[in-house]
């Protein structure tokens, strides 16, 4: 730790008094050394991994998303920034973060902690972190980014699915939630916005009705499926709803299933008005 942040000499420490740099682009988490290096060299690294010129628009999109989904959490953990407001303790422990996994490579208190051991474990940490970083870049560029077009098409055709405009139909299963929130904002879709998303489960060849949460990562829904349906399955659910082909409604009310598109659509439509 040099106590110096100086790009010209490739010194990227963040421990010094008065350091308050952030990534920008709407991100306000104080940077760690990892975030500093990514801020200055991330575009070049992403461009290299994607085999694209650094000026390509996809590079910028992936660069920002990788910060959001990978680097920002490292910055926050390193700087001791909690994920929640207030002094309440967490409801559960999460020891599966990248920082936790890297930390577990440190020698335990009663183990050999010689320089040789530390150096060997450091290389394991580099390999672990590098592989997960590359996996994140691959996911964002190859799977997350292409899904945007499917979600946009679903939003543009939402009124053909239901006159309310609150039900969307995905033409294929893809990562849709984060795109949905961004596109609703870009398209100035007013409240209540999208309440349910329909798609076919390609493995089971059955249809799913999924409630839209209030925001990314939230377990609270804009509107859940009816309370009377929750935890009920198969013929009992069909008898209760009067809708043929019902498969299930989850006990938490965030997802349900039907054997046909028509049945799934009717379950979503009734969910718009039933509590």
Question: Would you give an account of this structure?
Answer:
With 275 residues, the chain is of the alpha+beta class. Helix content is 44%, strand content 12%. It contains eight helices and nine strands. Helix 2 (57-78) packs across helix 4. It is elongated. It starts with a strand and ends with a helix. The mean pLDDT is 93.
Strand content: 5-15%
User: From the helix content, strand content and strand pairing, which structural class follows?
Assistant: alpha+beta
| C-alpha end-to-end distance | 57 Å
Number of helices: 8
The helix/strand series, from N terminus to C terminus, equals EEEEHHHHHEHEEHEEH
Largest beta sheet: strand ordering = 5-6-7-9-8
Shape: elongated
Radius of gyration equals 23 Å
